[in-house]
Amino acid sequence: MTRRKTIALILACAALALGATACGGDDSSSSDDTTTEAASTGGTTSQSGGSASGTLTGETGPGFTIEVSQDGQDAQTVEAGTYTLDVEDKSDMHNFHLIGPGVDEEVTDVPFVGDKSVTVTLEKGTYTYQCDPHAANGMKGTFTVT
Ligand SMILES: [Cu+2]
């Protein structure tokens, strides 16, 4: 009985000691998040002519998800230009709506199910894609055009 207690105590101490050192040594790397987000350089940049510069893929449904991807990856930063936007609408309860500088395009409406393709010209700024009935429930996303 007494033996057990002693062992438990020793173990507890060891754990405490370990915890203490772990905590102590942990403070070294509070990286300063200096995001070089460059307070936006002036507006006039190449408006790369009329030709399509790529393809974006949109997907809405069948669940409460919506996304835009480029080259198979979630689109987060996209270069300005003209794009073919292929939207796959997998549900009759969701739509696909793209909103941003110069664009306010409901590519598919709620009852529509299937694929639709539109051409969009993206300018610098932030674009939001959403399902209108469920945007408030988080069924939306954004990407940045640079
Ligand atoms: Cu929806």
Explained architecture:
The protein is of the alpha+beta class and 146 residues long. The chain has a domain at 52-145: Cupredoxins -  blue copper proteins (Immunoglobulin-like). It is built from one helix and ten strands, in the order αββββββββββ. It has one helix at residues 2-24, and strands at 52-60, 66-70, 73-74, 77-78, 81-89, 96-100, 103-108, 114-122, 125-130, 140-145. Strands 3-2-1-5-8 form a five-stranded mixed beta sheet, with no helix packed on it. A five-stranded mixed beta sheet has the order 4-10-9-6-7, with no helix packed on it. β1 and β2 (66-70) form a beta hairpin. The longest helix is centred in the N-terminal third of the chain and has 23 residues, at 2-24. 18% of the residues are buried. Mean pLDDT is 78; it is low at 5-50. Bound molecules: copper (II) ion. Copper (II) ion is lined by residues 93-94, 131, 133-134, 139.
Order of helices and strands: HEEEEEEEEEE
Distance between the termini: 71 Å
The biggest beta sheet is recorded as: 5 strands, mixed
Multimeric state: single chain
Backbone structural class: alpha+beta
CATH superfamily grouping of the domain at 52-145: Cupredoxins -  blue copper proteins
* Major sheet strand order: 3-2-1-5-8
Task: Just give the CATH class of the domain at 52-145.
Answer: Mainly Beta
Strand content: 35-45%
Query: What is the molecular shape?
Result: globular
Proportion in helices:
10-25%
| Arithmetic mean of pLDDT | 78
Radius of gyration: 26 Å
In this entry the ligands are: copper (II) ion
Low-confidence stretches: 5-50
Architecture of the domain at 52-145, CATH level 2? Answer: Sandwich
Query: What is the name of the CATH topology of the domain at 52-145?
Result: Immunoglobulin-like
Number of helices: 1
Number of strands: 10
